[in-house]
Automatic annotation (TrEMBL):
<dbReference type="GO" id="GO:0003746">
    <property type="term" value="F:translation elongation factor activity"/>
</dbReference>
<keyword id="KW-0648">Protein biosynthesis</keyword>
<dbReference type="InterPro" id="IPR000795">
    <property type="entry name" value="T_Tr_GTP-bd_dom"/>
</dbReference>
<dbReference type="Pfam" id="PF00679">
    <property type="entry name" value="EFG_C"/>
</dbReference>
<keyword id="KW-0342">GTP-binding</keyword>
<dbReference type="GO" id="GO:0032790">
    <property type="term" value="P:ribosome disassembly"/>
</dbReference>
<dbReference type="InterPro" id="IPR020568">
    <property type="entry name" value="Ribosomal_Su5_D2-typ_SF"/>
</dbReference>
<dbReference type="InterPro" id="IPR035647">
    <property type="entry name" value="EFG_III/V"/>
</dbReference>
<dbReference type="InterPro" id="IPR014721">
    <property type="entry name" value="Ribsml_uS5_D2-typ_fold_subgr"/>
</dbReference>
<dbReference type="InterPro" id="IPR053905">
    <property type="entry name" value="EF-G-like_DII"/>
</dbReference>
<dbReference type="GO" id="GO:0005525">
    <property type="term" value="F:GTP binding"/>
</dbReference>
<dbReference type="Pfam" id="PF14492">
    <property type="entry name" value="EFG_III"/>
</dbReference>
<dbReference type="Pfam" id="PF03764">
    <property type="entry name" value="EFG_IV"/>
</dbReference>
<dbReference type="Pfam" id="PF00009">
    <property type="entry name" value="GTP_EFTU"/>
</dbReference>
<keyword id="KW-0251">Elongation factor</keyword>
<keyword id="KW-0614">Plasmid</keyword>
<dbReference type="GO" id="GO:0003924">
    <property type="term" value="F:GTPase activity"/>
</dbReference>
Length: 677
């Protein structure tokens, strides 16, 4: 059984195609955990174990594997590289003590790697950069190292250098001299030692007095430099040839921080209306605090929750409390994960990563604890990107509606950047995500894993109708069919209100022309038209309807007669009041590299956007603020991604309604008329 000091939690991140999964395969093979290194093309890797990952040959979900090396228990967390799945990367960071950013030697720094380095800096997580696939671009390695330093800062220093034309690597922390493909071991060693001692006062004094400090005496200073992001070690490796893999295992065991050395992950505790910071102590004897960072649904064991034990120990058979409500549950299944393989364990100590199964109360971000005084504790939240791209979904088979709802809730539980919205007006279920690929993968999963077939279409734009002038309308409903008849007559004044005012119904009946008990029936008929629309099938808004007069019959006047009279009179009034169709406008904020400013502005102009501000932020990116019709943003996520090579981001918020274009109005009216006919 390992102890907290022996644990290393390493999350592998980087742009898609950088080779994260292949690196983990090489590490597993090197450590003797597998008999052969799996290949992505063959679909036999440990961490890309989902059928969709094997089909697409890319990581799509968080996955965990473990290696044992030099007495250390090293948890390796694989994450997706597509920007559409960045929510999974962000949640995985909450379980990590070290972030490895993998960069493709042939491609260089790519957009996802830039984003991750920003997150790492913001969260103050120890970080390493691994330049992978050095066999594919041995002549570009010096250039890549310089690019990393230029883009990510002078804190990025080589911990290794390639030698023999990238056929080997040499570690420069312990080695003080030697040759390399570029620079020299001596120069790299000196730079590394000087960077480390800068972060530690005692080590700096020793260095100034002696002129050098043996690397063996600098472990505490090295860990402090990592914690403070004063040092970002850069390593070189090739998952394909195995170069640098053994050295990388040694670096993880010797230099990557254990949970006692890593920065503590922040929690918050609610005290009344206030929140106060709280910190978990990675001591296995303290009261339990464990955080669920990922949930998935296994076809054999059901709900499977991946969690990091931040404090205390989680034991098989123990009773723990779940979330803010503190509901007690028993841990009946406790596993260590090796990809899709579940290895039963008796306990997980502070700092370790494990999985529990078949506890329905557990959701993403849940805290497991032992004391009711911890019921209100939460992991300090990180900001996740807002899902903006959507599909309106409808089950293809009648009777599958409930099954569709159940599956959608499972997908949302697994991915923090999927969201379900129910548009009652349009009678639509909308699934929103971060991009087209994000949603396509969700639809594939619904089909292949859960066997639910759906029709997917862009969600209906929430247009509205209104009127532009005041009118008066009168309608008499009279029906005689041999028995009891129906009679109701109403006179309405209908007038437009200012934008955003909503709807008002005013009763000005005097002298008992219509019984007070029948007035609600008139309003009911009016509201039926409000909900269904009059000219395009979209709800009406910003209208005042005043009931000014009417007639009733002592025998034939019933509620249904005045519902019909109210509806018909209101429809007649709308038709005469110069109705128009309104479209929703949103406030759009776009953040893009300065070089893409021209292309973005031009694209927004074609979308009828009104740009009202554009300025540079502290990183040099441009922030554009504009108002734009929501209907013009249907394909904006993919277009922005194309124009900025994946480096742009955007957010929207509803602003107000304005009249749509004449062309759109005519099209919507024609479409509605066709369905009515």
């Amino acid at each position: 059984m390992h102890i907290t000091q022996d644990i290393r939690n390493i999350v592998f991140t980087g742009h898609t195609g950088a080779g994260k999964t292949s690196l983990i395969e090489a590490l597993l093979f090197q450590a003797g955990e597998t008999t052969q290194a799996g290949e992505i093309e063959k679909g036999n890797t440990v961490t890309d174990c989902d059928p969709l990952e094997q089909l697409h040959q890319h990581s799509l979900y968080v996955s965990v594997a473990t290696v044992h090396h030099a007495g250390c228990h090293i948890n390796l967390i694989d994450t997706p590289g597509y920007a559409d799945f960045q929510g999974q990367v962000l949640t995985a960071l909450s379980a990590a003590d070290t972030v490895v950013v993998v960069i493709n030697a042939a491609a260089g720094i790519e957009p996802m790697s830039r984003k991750i380095m920003e997150w790492v800096s913001h969260q103050h997580l120890p970080c390493m950069v691994v330049i992978n696939r050095i066999d594919a671009a041995p002549d570009k390695l010096e250039q890549r190292l310089q690019e990393i330093t230029d883009v990510f800062g002078r804190e990025c220093l080589p911990l290794e250098l390639p030698i023999n034309h990238a056929a080997q690597v040499v570690e420069v922390y312990d080695h003080e001299s030697g040759t390399a493909d570029f620079s020299s071991v001596t120069v790299a060693h000196t730079a590394l030692i000087e960077q480390v001692v800068e972060a530690h006062e005692a080590a700096m004094e020793h260095y100034l007095e002696e002129g050098t400090v043996p690397a063996a005496e600098l472990h505490e200073a090295f860990e402090q430099a990592l914690r403070e992001n004063h040092l970002v070690p850069v390593c070189f490796a090739s998952a394909k040839t195995g170069v640098g893999i053994a050295e990388l295992l040694d670096i993880f065991a010797k230099l990557a921080p254990n949970p006692l050395e890593a920065p503590p992950h922040p929690f918050i505790r609610h005290k009344g209306e206030k929140t106060v910071a709280a910190w978990a102590i990675p001591d296995p004897d303290k009261p339990l605090l464990a955080h669920v960072f990922h949930v998935e649904f296994d076809p054999f064991v059901g709900k499977l929750a991946l969690l990091r034990v931040h404090q205390g120990s989680l034991k098989l058979g123990s009773q723990v409390l779940v979330g803010a409500e503190g509901k007690p549950v028993k841990i009946g299944h406790l596993y260590r994960l090796q990809g899709k393989e579940r290895i039963p364990v008796q306990q997980a100590v502070a700092g370790d990563i494990c999985a529990i199964a078949k506890i329905s109360e557990i959701e993403p971000d849940t805290i497991l604890h032992e004391r009711h005084e911890d019921d209100g504790i939460e992991m300090s939240g990180m900001t996740l990107p807002t899902p903006l791209v959507g599909f309106a979904l409808r089950a293809k088979k009648r009777g599958d509606e409930q099954k569709l709802s159940d599956v959608l809730h499972k997908l949302v539980a697994e991915d923090p950047c999927l969201r379900i919205e129910y548009d009652t007006t349009a009678n639509e279920t909308v699934l929103r995500g971060l991009g087209d690929l994000h949603l396509r993968i969700a639809l594939e999963r619904m089909d292949k894993q859960y066997h639910v077939e759906v029709d997917a279409a862009p969600p209906r734009i929430p247009y509205r109708e209104t009127i532009t002038k005041s009118v008066q309308a009168q309608y008499r409903h009279k029906k005689q069919s041999g028995g009891a008849g129906q009679f109701g007559e109403v006179q309405l004044d209908v007038e437009p209100l200012e934008r955003g005012a909503g709807f008002e119904f005013v009763n000005r009946i005097v002298g008992g022309a219509i019984s007070g008990s029948l007035i609600p029936a008139v309003e009911k008929g009016v509201r039926q038209v409000l909900a269904s629309g009059a000219i395009s099938g979209h709800p009406l808004m910003d209208i005042r309807v005043t009931l000014v007069d009417g007639k009733m019959h002592s025998v034939d006047s019933k509620e249904i007669a005045f519902v019909v009279a109210g509806r018909k009179a209101f429809m007649q009034a709308v038709a005469e009041a110069s109705p128009i169709i309104l479209e929703p406008l949103v406030d759009l904020e776009v953040t893009v590299p300065a070089a893409a400013m021209g292309d973005i502005s031009g694209d927004l102009a074609t979308r009828r956007a009104q740009i009202h501000d554009a300025q540079a932020d502290e990183t040099g990116n441009m922030i554009i603020q504009a108002k734009v019709p929501l209907a013009e943003l249907e394909d904006y996520a993919s277009r922005l991604n194309s124009l900025t090579a994946g480096e742009g981001s955007w957010a929207i918020q509803f602003s107000h309604y304005e009249p749509t274009t004449e062309k759109t109005q005519q099209a919507l009216m024609a479409q509605y008329k066709a369905t009515e006919d």
